[in-house]
Amino acid sequence: MSFIPKLKLGISGYNAGDYSIDGIVSTNLNEIEIKGGLSIQQIEPTFMQQEFKSNAIQWNNDFSKVSVNQVYGSLSTQQTNHNLKFDVMAENTNGLIYYHSDNQISQFNDNLNWLRVIVSHHFKNEYIGSDFSLTYQN
Quick one: 66 exposed, middle or buried, by C-beta within 10 A (0-12, 13-18, 19+)? Predict the structure, then answer.
């Protein structure tokens, strides 16, 4: 079993108060590889997202920090010529910044939730192979 943590902190300047926490754990159980992870971050929007000036458009925004939280995992196994993998990821985002049609930029301050599941199967032998993936996302 292995565990890989990462931590980033903004302690001064423009990014003061920003943080990013990531952790990945993985192990093998017989011939099944199991991986999982967690990512939590709260970051300041980029300077260009906050302020932009040109001859055609301009904006000066006071956006709040963007928050992204993810939990993900995978199970995979390889048996002779077959490889089967199952991936899942759930994400919650708040403060998403987006560009819209009138050349302006806005922040969406409600929670957005995503779930993505991918099942894939790969087969290969000397004469033929196949690659199949099924994805569900909401």
Answer: buried
